[in-house]
């Protein structure tokens, strides 16, 4: 069934031009399909990120998607070198050190895109 097929992550954005610039220039993703209502980016393997036009920004703070990376600290440094603001947390149950948190089973980091979508590593 579906376990053998790739999946696309779908996010929303109020300004597709800003989303295209953010995910293309800052995050480093290549555009594979683009239209008036969406932009699709190539990610690792056969996965894709699809950003669709919306009239409202995301108001949810939960992580919408997360990249699996080998070295979180290295990716955080690379993101910062491209102007991406990596989130810092210092609250009960979640503390980052230089943008990276030990969540018990893995190291994690987060950034928020221009439309308020929280993305993890």
Describe the 3D structure.
The protein has a four-stranded mixed sheet with strand order 1-4-3-2, covered by helices on one side. The chain has two helices and eleven strands. It has helices at 16-26, 72-81, and strands at 8-13, 30-34, 38-42, 48-53, 63-66, 90-91, 94-97, 100-102, 107-108, 110-112, 118-120. The chain is of the alpha+beta class. The longest helix is centred in the N-terminal third of the chain and has 11 residues, at 16-26. The protein is globular and about 40 Å long. A hairpin with a 5-residue loop joins strand 10 and strand 11 (118-120).
Show the helix and strand layout.
Layout (H helix, E strand, L loop, with lengths): L7 E6 L2 H11 L3 E5 L3 E5 L5 E6 L9 E4 L5 H10 L8 E2 L2 E4 L2 E3 L4 E2 L1 E3 L5 E3 L1
Percent helix: 10-25%
Number of helices: 2
Structural class: alpha+beta
The global form is: globular
Strand order of the largest sheet: 1-4-3-2
Order of helices and strands: EHEEEEHEEEEEE
Mean pLDDT: 95
First-residue to last-residue Cα separation: 28 Å
- How many strands? 11
Quick structural gist:
With 121 residues, the protein is of the alpha+beta class. It has two helices and eleven strands; from the N terminus they run βαββββαββββββ. The longest helix has 11 residues.
Key structural traits:
121 residues; alpha+beta; four-stranded mixed sheet; 17% helix
